[in-house]
């Protein structure tokens, strides 16, 4: 072998090592004396390719943790074995913050954070797997807002997490793109799962139960990323969402009535299908416009293109809650139908027509009940309007977005 | 003759003047009567202890692994006295960040023959090898802010080839040196406030990631303080009081700066003679906008509090929160004009509780003066 070739081979080999293609090390952090400092330091000093292995036991933490290194796995000994408790937290807005790319968080619990639970900001390829995030005192307005909280992130995988007690949303994906939320359980939160101002999300095989509202797909004004679209919510169990709303006033979810199943507010191209809805006492499915005044020329306040089909509906609508529940039942009567659309359209559309791709379509089994509250007509024709309960008039379909594919999930 | 350490026990280091070329007094609480005495004492001590003048070590600034001790950088001729080495220039900001009322001593170093590039809006672009150094200290009693001052930590921002690095050094009990703390630290502070009441709290030295919690611009570490608008003010250098921008230009550590009169200038938020709007916006700029800006860690909030933000909704007026959680305090808008008690901003600035208080990092106690200013400002909005 000529020396120059040897050098080239060595260079390639070394490059492979130094770019983190090879796992560098496992950094073990056990519970006990000085655990907080050791854990903070391990997360800071980790090199790309490392795994930070957190041992079983309780870690009492006083400050938020953070990870800013790419290509790191943070792994515990199980969501009931490795417990990061933030009961004594005195600083930071969340328990664990990730700001780097290609990070996997798995097999540990985060309890009782003063703010949010586990957050990623601006991460690409972030995975939350088999985590438990919980406020152990149960529903309480003093709990943190979000449990699992990727925001401004790309390629987000949330798989088999459990979140309990969040004062806003248990699983909250905000201003993100390419999202999978699956096999997860959200209970006793205000919102179980919320996809907000995000693009391309698949939410499936989750259980949202005993929250105020099960699954929310929202789009809000005055945010850097808006115009949420291409969302599929399918094959979820959305059952018995019956916890009184405990969100502090001022937060959007504070309007969600107890007993909301799946709620779509603003957004575009949202597909809700194959879900099992039962025991949601306000309504199983609500499609609505953004209800507040706002100042934002770029914002579209009505939902555009929503397709609800093939879901199963059990008991529901028997005890509509709060202001929203009253607004609905004042028109629809009680029990509230399975599917409710507020019927708000843009005024030019009211006087002309709504393009096919922007309409609401419903294709459900015989016997499914529905109401269009025609709230726009209430406004425009207060002396002569009536709700529309003829579900057959909304039959049709929209082309379904392609399944979301994530680079970190190619094998699944 | 008294030893330096003995002097030190009753002579606060932070009141000591320093005398580099740009020589200065780095603290607002200077006592002119003491100046000459300490000048002589320290000069004599230095002659005895440290015959050679220190200069900052580029090797230390550029090292991949940060030095374990602050002294290894050579930023100071006399570390304990915070007397800067040759080429290390003290500075102050028109409106500083509130950090639990810590006294702060700020220094800049730019390698010989290089200069930072002026920017009208953002922090200046510093050349590789530059360093920004900031020491945090607490007096035993704020009624005598220049006495019995305890140095807590010194933070360094180092401009390396790959970008900025941020590290914090924790001072030892003897106040002779400070050592690297990657994981941060908690320090119990006991002092007496300006109105004579005792104050005790636990101060946090940030860990490395927390440094970036504020010092982040589009995901990379960046300096915050050295912006034209905040440096455009006078500083009492030993050679006389001069405008800092003009002094930096004269020292050739800054290039491209216009005359001070042509540069933007933020008011001192405590200056009651300055317009209220400017004072409030300067305070919000420095205390909030490191995160609350389009390029910052809180970009997702949609609340942007930079000095130059002109969209009222973006700086909070009738803006609804997005992720405030219990931080909303049951209020509906970030800023409700005319109604400070209906404004989430006030709720979060007044709080000292984790998960509610803003900023999230670097504060454990309230700042009643700032609260009063912001209340007055919001009351006047309509």
From TrEMBL, chain A:
One Pfam match: Beta_helix
Residue span(s) of domain Right handed beta helix: 73-219
Keyword terms, alphabetized: Signal
Signal sequence extent: 1-24
NCBIfam families reported for this sequence: beta_helix_1 (TIGR03805)
Name the record gives this protein: Parallel beta-helix repeat-containing protein
Species in which this protein is naturally found: Neomesorhizobium albiziae
Taxonomic classification: Bacteria, Pseudomonadati, Pseudomonadota, Alphaproteobacteria, Hyphomicrobiales
From TrEMBL, chain B:
Protein name as catalogued: Cytochrome c domain-containing protein
Source organism per UniProt: Neomesorhizobium albiziae
GO molecular function, one term: heme binding
InterPro entries: Cyt_c-like_dom, SO_2930-like_C
Lineage: Bacteria, Pseudomonadati, Pseudomonadota, Alphaproteobacteria, Hyphomicrobiales
All residue ranges annotated as the Cytochrome c domain in the record: 191-280
Entry keyword Glycoprotein: no
Keyword line: Heme, Iron, Metal-binding
PROSITE patterns assigned: CYTC (PS51007)
């Amino acid at each position: 072998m000529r020396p120059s070739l040897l050098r080239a081979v060595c260079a390639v080999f070394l490059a492979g090592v130094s770019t983190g293609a090879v796992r560098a090390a496992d950094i073990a952090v056990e519970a006990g004396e000085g655990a907080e400092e050791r854990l903070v330091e391990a997360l800071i000093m980790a090199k790309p390719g490392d795994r930070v292995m957190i041992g079983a036991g309780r870690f009492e933490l006083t400050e938020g943790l953070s990870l800013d290194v790419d290509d790191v796995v943070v792994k515990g000994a199980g969501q009931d074995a490795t417990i990061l408790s933030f009961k004594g937290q005195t600083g930071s807005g969340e328990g664990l913050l990730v700001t780097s790319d290609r990070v996997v968080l798995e097999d540990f619990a985060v309890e009782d954070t003063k703010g949010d639970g586990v957050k990623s900001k601006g991460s690409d390829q972030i995975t939350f797997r088999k985590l438990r995030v919980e406020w152990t005192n149960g529903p309480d307005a003093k709990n943190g807002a979000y449990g699992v909280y990727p925001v401004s992130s790309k390629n987000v995988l949330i798989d088999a997490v459990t979140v309990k007690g969040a004062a806003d949303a248990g699983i909250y994906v905000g201003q993100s793109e390419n999202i999978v939320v699956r096999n997860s359980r959200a209970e006793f939160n205000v919102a179980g799962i919320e996809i907000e101002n995000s693009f391309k999300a698949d939410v499936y095989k989750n259980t949202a139960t005993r929250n105020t509202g099960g699954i929310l797909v929202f789009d809000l004004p005055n945010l850097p990323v808006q115009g949420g679209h291409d969302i599929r919510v399918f094959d979820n169990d959305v059952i018995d969402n019956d916890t009184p709303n405990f969100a502090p006033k001022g937060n959007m979810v504070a309007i969600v009535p107890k007993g909301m199943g799946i709620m779509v507010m603003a957004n575009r191209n949202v597909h809700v299908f194959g879900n099992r809805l039962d025991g949601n006492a306000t309504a199983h499915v609500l499609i609505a416009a953004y209800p507040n005044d706002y100042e934002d020329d770029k914002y579209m306040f009505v939902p555009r293109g929503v397709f609800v089909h093939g879901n199963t509906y059990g008991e529901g609508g028997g005890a509509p809650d709060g202001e929203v529940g009253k607004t609905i039942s004042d028109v629809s009567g009680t029990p509230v139908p399975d599917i409710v659309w507020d019927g708000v359209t843009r005024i030019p559309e009211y006087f002309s027509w709504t393009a096919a791709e922007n309409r609401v379509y419903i294709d459900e089994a015989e016997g499914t009940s529905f109401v269009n509250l025609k709230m726009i007509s209430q406004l425009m024709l207060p002396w002569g309007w009536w709700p529309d309960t003829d579900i057959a008039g909304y039959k049709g379909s929209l082309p379904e977005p392609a399944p979301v594919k994530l680079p970190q999930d190619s094998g699944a | 003759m008294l030893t330096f350490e003995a002097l030190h026990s009753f002579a606060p280091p932070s009141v000591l003047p320093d005398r580099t070329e740009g020589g200065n007094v780095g603290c607002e609480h200077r006592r002119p009567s003491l100046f000459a005495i300490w000048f002589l004492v320290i000069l004599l001590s230095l002659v005895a202890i440290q015959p050679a003048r220190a200069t900052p070590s580029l090797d230390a600034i550029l090292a991949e692994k940060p030095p374990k001790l602050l002294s290894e950088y050579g930023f100071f001729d006399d570390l304990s006295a915070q007397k800067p080495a040759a080429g290390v220039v003290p500075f102050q900001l028109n409106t500083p960040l509130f950090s639990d009322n810590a006294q702060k001593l700020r220094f800049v170093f730019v390698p010989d023959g290089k200069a930072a590039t002026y920017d009208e809006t953002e922090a200046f672009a510093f050349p590789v090898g530059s360093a920004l150094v900031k020491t945090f200290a607490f007096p035993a009693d704020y009624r005598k802010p220049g006495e019995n001052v305890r140095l807590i930590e010194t933070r360094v921002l180092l401009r390396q080839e790959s970008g900025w690095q941020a590290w914090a050094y924790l001072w030892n009990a003897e106040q002779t040196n400070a050592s690297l703390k990657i994981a941060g630290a908690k320090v119990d502070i006991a002092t007496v406030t300006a109105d004579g009441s005792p104050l005790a709290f636990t101060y946090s030295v940030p860990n490395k990631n927390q440094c970036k919690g504020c010092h982040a611009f589009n995901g990379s570490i960046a300096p915050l303080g050295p912006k034209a608008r905040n440096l455009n003010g006078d500083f009492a250098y030993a050679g006389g009081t001069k405008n800092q921008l003009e002094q930096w230009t004269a020292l050739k550590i800054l290039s491209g700066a216009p005359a001070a009169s042509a540069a933007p200038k933020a008011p001192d938020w405590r200056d009651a003679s300055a317009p209220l709007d400017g004072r409030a916006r300067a305070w919000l700029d420095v205390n909030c906008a490191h995160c609350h800006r389009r390029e910052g860690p809180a970009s997702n909030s949609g609340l942007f509090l930079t000095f130059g933000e002109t969209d009222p909704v973006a700086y909070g007026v009738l803006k609804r929160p997005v992720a405030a959680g219990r931080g909303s305090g049951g209020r509906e808008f970030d800023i409700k004009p005319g109604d400070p008690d209906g404004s989430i901003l006030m709720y979060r600035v007044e709080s000292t509780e984790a998960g509610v208080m803003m900023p999230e990092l670097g504060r454990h106690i309230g700042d009643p003066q700032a609260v009063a200013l912001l209340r007055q400002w919001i009351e006047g909005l309509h």
